[in-house]
Amino acid sequence: MNLLPGGGCPNLNSNVEDRIALAHGEGAKAMRRLLEERILPKFSNIHLESCADAVWLPKPLGSLAFSTDCYVVTPLFFPGGDIGKLSVCGTANDLAVSGAKPRWLSLAMIIEEGFSLELLEKILLSVAATAQQAEMLVVAGDTKVVPRGKVDGLFINTSGLGEGIDGVRSKPETISEGDAIVVTGPIGRHGMAIMAAREQGFAEQEIVSDCGLLYPAVAALHDAGIHVRAMRDATRGGVASVLHEWASDCGLSFTIEEKQIPVDTDVRGIAELLGIDPLFVANEGTMVVAIAESDVEKTLQALRNVEISASATRIGYARKKGAAAVTVRRGLGIEIALDEPSGAPLPRIC
Question: Domain 172-337 belongs to what architecture?
């Protein structure tokens, strides 16, 4: 059981009123108090007033995008974020890179009996703050409580709806030979931040996750009139996974330049120590973008004017299909195949 920000078990002899009980998930008085006193005040809006079984949303202006995801990260708190912030950013980013403005969010929690109400408050406040930053309304949700040992503290599911942005769609099948590949920031920060948080003293300096909202970067590309071929947030499997999926979709291969790939020094150091290529490590606020070569400078200028993508860099290009779907040109000019990730080198990072 890993319920505290720095790991470790809660004091089970502490006041039971300070902790989640099975009754909090049974739909009676205790659950109603939990909702009314702890949860609903964080997300006050007209859609939650009735606590009905379904919410009626206003008619959208255009097409709708829908996404859902579950979050089981450990530890629950890490440098740069927590499971609450992560659950909003993850779903909002999936909508944004699909070409939609995030609008509405559902929040469902599975909580372990004995979980600290104080920690739950912190996580809910983080969800609320991040949703407000994303300009999303939490309009529906659910809470379940399970016996001790059946969940590692807290699991969260969020589902999101977004309104389509005119002229913006991610279509990897439209990537053409010669198109450029851009990443919006240094890679591998989230996975390595989680790793360092699990192993206290593992890193000499604190590594901060890139967990953040990508919609401002997507909006900047739209406002600049960039015709984006494809966008993808490089989460589990990292940049390598994105490029392998795109290669399969478009029938081309990709070559990336090692010296152009942005990697923070501390992230690179831990990756080398663990024998993990940063290209395989998860990100939670960094995306990969495919655009025409002629739009590279305009794209970089637009992205660098936004905080979350201020370090945007061109790292490679699409080419005629070769023996390897993705290759990396290393420092000495030697081009080698980059294998597709076959599993998670760092489990439970989101």
Answer: Alpha-Beta Complex (3.90)
